[in-house]
Specification:
single chain, 143 residues, Thiol Ester Dehydrase, Chain A, 2 helices
Length: 143
């Protein structure tokens, strides 16, 4: 996964998660599908924090068009993690969300990832132009 240049990345949101027993796989470490679920969790938290949802970001919904995850370290039961969300490559109808999953105690990255998101009109079943409210949040959010 090729990271975007720092100048094109805008930080959006952080949250904290603790690895639960249901998040583990047969190898007794954080499962790959759970990491994608964590990405979904922070995305929904950030939207909710801004009084939006994946179904309504100001006149249309969001659809994921692709995802990449790079697994860097194993996650273990009860490990406390900080998940950060950033955005890059904001266009007229699409943008990329970037994720970093970091161990709170040791400071190392557990995983990084990206989801490619598009604005989508679910009633018409077609792509939609990004609502101004979402565009403003993506370009100006700094907390």
């Amino acid at each position: 996964m090729q990271p975007p240049s720092e100048s094109s990345v805008c930080h959006l949101y952080n949250c904290e998660l603790q690895v639960r027993v249901s998040d583990l796989n047969y190898g007794n470490h954080l499962s790959n599908d759970t990491i994608l679920s964590y990405f979904h969790e922070i995305r929904v938290q950030w939207l909710s924090h801004n009084q939006l949802s994946e179904q309504d970001v100001g006149g249309c919904g969001l659809i994921m068009t692709g995802a990449n995850i790079e697994y860097l370290k194993q996650g273990n039961l009860h490990q406390k993690l900080t998940l950060s969300l950033s955005v890059s490559d904001v266009g007229k109808a699409r943008f990329n969300l970037l994720y970093k999953l970091k161990d709170q105690q040791k400071g190392h990255l557990v995983a990084i990832g990206e989801t490619r998101m598009g604005c989508f009109d679910y009633q018409r079943q077609k792509p939609a132009r990004m609502p101004q409210r979402l565009l403003s949040l993506l370009l100006s959010e700094t907390n």
